[in-house]
Design brief:
- The complex is a heterodimer of chains A (76) and B (165).
- Chain A has 3 helices and 3 strands.
- Chain A has a single domain, classed as HPr-like (Histidine-containing Protein, Chain: A).
- A 3-stranded antiparallel β-sheet of chain A has the order 2-1-3, covered by helices on one side.
- In chain A, helix 1 packs antiparallel against helix 3.
- In chain A, 38% of the residues lie in helices and 20% in strands.
- Chain A has 76 residues and is of the alpha+beta class.
- Chain B has 165 residues and is an alpha/beta fold.
- Chain B contains 5 helices and 5 strands.
- In chain B, a hairpin with a 2-residue loop joins strand 1 and strand 2.
- At the A-B interface, helix 1 and helix 2 of A face helix 3 of B.
Chain lengths: 76, 165
């Protein structure tokens, strides 16, 4: 996964009071670490699964889904 | 998924382009120091300096390349470049980089790449390179040894040594 979307995901995760795991293509990583996210093979069309646990889990997942739906605001 | 061992990405990092003891006291200063060293090493033409620094600054303004765990990975596309140019650097004291975790940066992987795919630049392979860097940077021993390195060669040799683990 490219660094900028990783940064957006991790920034959101760190701003919420919860844990986050992200699954993609059989791999699962800590969603609060850019370095772990960058190791995911998540090219265009990849399916990401967000697993959040904690007080603000629902809010975080909603935020992340919105980010993905907006293409991480990178589409031109 | 493990990064393929046979791609030998460590070969992209040359001793002469690396700095084991960055002197800069700011992120901006560090980027200038690294780019100046690339020119000195003959890996970057002087005429590209302004464009490279401009692209790096713009990239930092979009989002810090401080990816956490004391690591920064500034990487940008450079118009006119025909191949990937890299530099591995260490800063003993650590630099404020507005990193995502707020921690200072001790290890910096700088990656410049061409704007367009070409004979010496495959975007897919580039993504693999970034994954390989991320795998290495996650390794606490790599980060510790990088900061402790006493020569450029020691620093760069870590890439090969730790890639094979």
């Amino acid at each position: 996964m490219h660094a900028r979307p990783c940064h957006q995901i991790v920034s959101a995760a760190l701003a919420h009071d919860c844990q986050l795991r992200i699954r993609c293509g059989g791999a699962e990583v800590n969603g609060r670490s850019i370095l772990e996210l960058m190791t995911l093979q998540a090219g265009p069309g990849a399916v990401l699964e967000f697993l959040a646990q904690g007080r603000e889990a629902r809010s975080l997942v909603e935020h992340l889904v919105s980010l993905v739906e907006r293409g991480f605001e990178e589409r031109t | 998924m493990p990064v393929s061992r046979d791609q030998a990405f460590w070969k992209l990092f040359k001793v002469k382009t690396s700095l084991f003891d960055l002197k800069a006291e700011t992120k901006e200063g560090a980027l200038e120091e690294i780019v100046a060293n690339l020119v000195k090493a003959g890996e970057l033409e002087q005429q590209h300096t302004k464009a490279v620094l401009g692209a790096l600054t713009e990239r930092e303004n979009l989002a810090s390349t401080g990816v956490g765990q004391n690591v920064a990975i500034p990487h940008v596309k450079v118009p006119g470049l025909d191949r990937v140019v890299t530099s591995l650097c260490a800063h003993k004291e650590g630099l404020e980089w507005a990193a995502v975790d707020g921690e200072p940066v001790h290890v910096c992987f700088l990656v410049l790449r061409p704007e367009e795919p070409g004979e010496d630049h495959d975007p897919e392979r580039h993504l693999e390179l970034m994954r390989w860097i991320s795998e290495l940077a996650r390794n606490r021993d790599f980060r510790r040894f990088a900061v402790q390195s006493r020569t450029r060669r020691e620093l760069v040799d870590l890439l090969k040594e730790m890639s094979n683990r």
